[in-house]
Amino acid sequence: MGSTSTKIKLRTSDQKVFEVEKAVAVQSQTIKYIYENGCPDSVIHVHSVSGDILSKILDYCKKHVNSAAGKEDISPEELYEWDANFVKVDQNTLFDLILAANCLKIESLLDLTCQTVANMIKGKRPEEIRTTFNIKNDYTIEAEEAVRRENKWAFDMLGGVGTMVIEELADDTMSKCVTNAKSRVCVIAANQIVMMRSISKLANKKSIDVYKQPQNPTTPRIKESVKQINVGTGFIELFFHFKCKM
Amino acid sequence: MARLPHEVTSDILCRLSVKDLLRFRSVSKPWCRTIDDPYFIKLHLSHSLKTITNHSLILSHWEDHFFSVDYDLFETTQRLNHPFGERRKTLQILGSCNGLLALVDDKDGIFLWNPSTRKSQVLPFNEIGFSSPSSSYYGFGYDPISDEYKLVRMVQSHGNNDEYFHSEAKVYSLRSNCWRRIKDVCFYHKFSREFGFLANNALHWMVFKTPQSRNQELVGFDLGSEEFRFLELPDGCLDKILRFHIKAMGGDICLTSTYRETNNFVVDVWIMKEYGVKQSWFKLISWKEPYFMPCSIVALPVAFSKDGDEVLFFIGYKWFNWGRRIDSFVWYDLGSQVVEDAVIRGIPTSFDVNLYVDSLVPLNSNAQQ
Q1: Which terminus of chain A has a lower count of CB atoms within 10 Å, N or C?
Q2: Which residue range(s) make up the domain with B43?
Q3: Is residue B188 part of a domain?
Q4: Domain assignment present for B41
Q5: Does B14 reside within a domain?
């Protein structure tokens, strides 16, 4: 056949039929194999994928085929952003997309969706993972404690001495401030909110108070111990020690 | 997640950091089994290597010990506390492979350490068949054929005017946790201690073919076949040089020669694109800088940037007058040849640098911790 306007018919699990261009459909290695080894005119059944999901997947394939072929004027950055928006869906849909991409063997979509889930679970606590993904905790209390103890340090949020550098103390840095008081600066680093006192007085100070704001705004602030301060022009370096259990 | 097939769960998990994965062992028993599974550990490692994630630089300062710099963030250092005790102030990293560090102290005690999993091991004592060895050459690497981590130690002792000559080479295998003697080497060491580098699943050192040789040659020890072979360097690369350094970079053998040309320092970086093929040597970089006293400069390539467009160089300035050394990093852009400082806060003034990748690779649990 070879013509670029060849169409392939796909039937989903809920009996919806889609007619798509061959170039788009064969992004799926599974469909490609079936098409090349079967009768080209017949309808290909994609049993495990619903109409809604297939529709989304075909959008993805079409976008990528068109951008690669130059049919659509889209820069790599714009495509990257399109992909990022594509995966902004509810969790069930995301999982359905993963299952479909796995079954249809669409490598780039599987890569995108798996990376999205990986990004969602980075830095989370085991309890959060279980709740989010509905995983049964089959450990006994003792067994779970034992496993936790094997890698106790992995549960520290920030171990050891950390250096946080605040550069260019401009007005927009102040605008991140939680209290909105002009004299305080608030910097968000690695899920921690650290507040410092009075920038204008810092140059004359030998020590400053550093407060950690817990995620729950009603919990009182915790004052951290600060090991060493270097106050120079243009930036401040703080060396501080804190650990907190996840 | 419960309804995702196992290979998809593994695909997702292999993108996470070692710290996250060690924590997620307590999510459920199936997750723990997956994370501890040797197949998954290899999958995670190969993903890190392929996408250049979970990489860091390890800086060793002789007194202050080890610091790591994240290769993605590249901003600050984090102190690495080794588990070998306060007394061991003379630990040097002899090799870094797949997340395992091999270290040696001044008494030739050898240790293995995975800083990501915080597991460590002391190697069994390595008996030498003769007294007063004058040189020990080490190397550490992974053999994919036998799926085995091996450490090589070659010891030589010789008197003046070839009164006597003893040579012994041994290989340690991680899985069996023991040393075994290998075929004697057919070359000579002249330096007291050298650490080999890993390329193409072989360990390499610069050695002398005969005791009278003036020039060094590159020898490779294949970790699979355990055979030595010599590799040829580009013609004339060792002539009239101030400094010579050879290592692996981006998987290929990389040779750096520094020499003076009229008023300039020239740093030439050669890459052997095809392993063992002399004609495949090509000059990647020829970097000229004006030469100025009173200091000597060391410029050594460390690694490629993630996108491959730049090379990270280690720059060491040594001031003759005050004997002080100040080390730093710069990025050399391969296209524009522009050099840019890489600012990292908290680095020690002088250090050695090793590349490191976080991994779950285990040590031998039966060995001495």
Answers
A1: N
A2: 1-51
A3: no
A4: yes
A5: yes
At B198, give phi and psi (nearest 5°): -100, 130
Between A210 and A218, residue with greater pLDDT: A218
The CA-atom distances, in angstroms, between B328 and each of A189, B78, B302 are: 26, 16, 12
Interface of A with B (CB under 8 A): 95, 98-99, 102, 110, 114-115, 117-118, 121-126, 129-130, 133-139, 144, 147-148, 150-151, 153-155, 160-163, 165, 237, 246
- For B28, nearest residue in chain A (alpha carbons): A137
- Contact B79/A150, CB-based, under 8 Å? no
Closest CA to B365 of B173, B97, B175: B175
pTM score, two decimals?
0.80
Number of structural domains chain B divides into: 1
Most confident of A114-118, B130-134, B183-187: A114-118
CB-facing half-sphere around the CA of B89: CA atoms within 13 A: 5
Torsion-angle region of B200 (φ positive above 0: left; ψ -120 to 50: alpha; else: beta): left
Task: Decide if A156 contacts A170 (C-beta within 8 A).
Answer: no
**Chains A–B, number of C-beta pairs less than 8 Å apart:** 95
Residues of chain B above pLDDT 90, percent: 51
Q: Which residues of A touch B118 (CB under 8 A)?
A: 151, 153
Nearest by CB to residue A118, choosing from B16, B27, B28, is: B16
CA distance A143 to chain B (A): 9
Task: Please indicate, yes or no, if residue B98 is contained in any of the structural domains.
Answer: no
Handedness of CA A129, A131, A137, A140 (dihedral sign): positive
Contact A35, A8 (CB under 8 A): yes
Q: Nearest by CB to A117, which of B3, B12, B26?
A: B12
Which residue bears the tokens 């130690």? Answer: B153
The answer to whether the CB atoms of A114 and B15 lie below 8 A apart is yes
Q: Which residue type does B236 have?
A: G
| Mean local confidence (pLDDT), A3-10 | 77
Which of A135, A139, A151 has the CB atom closest to B1's CB atom? A135
Chain A positions touching B344 (Cβ under 8 A) are: none
Q: What does the pLDDT look like over A135-144, one tens digit per residue?
A: 889 999 999 9
**Which residues in A33-70 are b (16+ Cβ under 10 Å) and which e?**
ebbeeeeeeeebebeebebebbebbbebbbbbbbbeee
